Amino acid sequence: MKKTLAPALVAGLLAGAAAVSAQAGEIAVIVKTTSSNFWQNVNKGAQAAIEGQSEHTLSFDGPASESAIADQVNLVENAINRGVSGIVLAPSDPEALAPAVKRAYENAIPVVIIDSALADSAQGTYQAFLATDNCAAGEEVAKMMIDEVGTEGKVAIMSYVAGVGSEIGRVGCFTDYIRANSKLDIVGPYYSQSQMALALNQTTDVLAANGDLKGIFGANEPTAVGMGRALVQSGKAGEIAAIGFDGNGDLQQFVRDGTLKATAVQGSFQMGEEGVKTVMEILAGNKVAPKIDTGVVLVTPDNIDDPVAQNVLY
């Protein structure tokens, strides 16, 4: 059902303002997949944000895999069709999700984007973007990689879904920093489609084909878990400087046992909590910051038990 926009709301949205008329109802949190601990931690944060109030309800959904982009588009369309009050969206594809977000805008449904950016063409159709600065995170991982392996030799990149906003920043800036600050040769990137088993097989092949590999970067949770398991199975755990991304139980154990030198962990709980809170602020008629950095922590064996790491691990 299409909502009638007040003139002030039309003017505010066209100017990129984050104020909409107050309204109660469902806030739909739609993530890239429900099969990952990272996104389940986003759900925990979203649930925490909704507790203690009765004005809004919460739904949480996502496709079976991050590569099921059409399914995610359908989830957004379904949320619009049932007249939700607001949407928190982690878009799997920057271009494919843009028309659905535009339709939400046309129906006066505020949208807060988390984790991955939408295409530039979508500017003005959503009210806030909450994410890790993936470019800065990629550079931090690259700096650590150079510290670990030096400036010559080979390092491999095990990536996830090509073209996703977070991947473009995270892997792109890792690559750019390595090339600008070392003579390291880059093997890859290889794309796991965020499937742990595929990442394991890909990493196994990379290790077999590159006996002189010095370092390897697994750029998201399922990819890094598959990478870590391949290192263990090949007997090369601890011999190659491996750095992961995200912070589930498997990756924490890999850090503790030395399979990984570190894992870069985003504030996934914070994305869910702050994403829902931001939608509620918008629905209450309050202005919000258009861009919010939810941060990243390099978790190592030295700091894994410290509060700074424990607050982001899941």
UniProtKB/TrEMBL annotation:
Keyword tRNA-binding among UniProt keywords: no
Q: Which GO terms describe its molecular function?
A: carbohydrate binding
Instruction: List, for all copies, the residue spans of the domain called Periplasmic binding protein.
Output: 27-287
Signal peptide (UniProt feature, chain positions): 1-24
What name is this protein filed under? Substrate-binding domain-containing protein
The record's similarity note reads: Belongs to the bacterial solute-binding protein 2 family.
- Matching InterPro entries, A to Z? Peripla_BP_I, SBP_2_dom
Q: Which GO terms describe its cellular component?
A: cell envelope
Listed CDD domains: PBP1_ABC_sugar_binding-like
| Subcellular localization(s) per the UniProt record | Cell envelope
**Record keywords, A-Z:** Signal
User: Is the Lipid metabolism keyword given for this protein?
Assistant: no
